[in-house]
Amino acid sequence: MFGEYRTLSVKPTYSYTTYGWVYHGRSQYDCDLVIDIILAETSLRSTVQREDALNNKIRAAEKLADIDGNSSQLKELEKQLQELKKTRSRKVRVLYEWECMLGMGSLRKGYISVKSNPAWYLREELVEYCVSRGGCCSRDCGCCERRRLSAKNGTGIGHCTVECMCCIHDRGSEFTAEEKKDVNDRFATMLRLDNPGFLLRIANAYFSKPLFWKIKTKHK
Q: Which of 2, 6, 16, 70 shows its CA 20 to 30 Å from the CA of 120?
């Protein structure tokens, strides 16, 4: 059945490592593939949010250029935007390539079924993770919920990353390149821990369609 109601699991008799397996129904899948898809989606989402923030800066620079006639900052931002669009296009392809590695088994069916819902990322597991990181779901702004309404082709939508414009405003400054790398590296490390609890919780939100969709937001 398309979009079967199955969850990912690990067998307790197995020693879980980065070379371990996850089980979806009766099928066995390499943990690394599951992790690589999650990381590729997160990286794309970060780029999309960076692009949104840059577009906001460009709009502000356009107003400033109209006032003082100096368009040098605007031109530099537009140049950055063009490069960022190339980066987004590349990351879309990278995610697609990893998705193709799923083959035609139950995990792929679950993944497609989950992603068919534009609000898939508002599942409880991912909302709670956004809250725990101090993202928009921990505030009353409603940014995460609105992203599904303004998404481009449904790609790169989801919860806050280090590039979220609202989160940057809330904390008062952008992370440095080193700080961004540290945040992303820590997320990858958590997915690869010997204890698979975190991986299974995040992965089930990506690959396992719930029996009933329960969309959770701060306002509901």
A: 16
Interatomic CA distance for residues 130 and 103, integer angstroms: 30
pLDDT in tens, 1-52: 233 445 555 443 333 444 466 666 666 777 889 999 999 999 999 999 999 9
* Domain spans of the chain, in order of start: 30-207
What is the Cα–Cα distance from 202 to 125, expressed in whole angstroms?
A: 7
**Identity of the amino acid at 216:** K
Distance CA 206, CA 112 (A): 9
Q: What would the two tokens of residue 4 be?
A: 């079967």
Verdict on whether the full-model pTM lies above 0.85: no
Q: Which residue has the tokens 């609105």?
A: 146
Cα–Cα distance between 113 and 11 in angstroms, integer?
25
Instruction: Categorise residue 25: left if φ over 0, alpha if ψ from -120 to 50, beta otherwise.
Output: left
Closest CA to 199 of 8, 19, 29: 8
Residues 6 or more apart from 183 whose CB is under 8 A from it? 162, 175
**In the predicted model, is pLDDT for residue 212 greater than 60?**
no
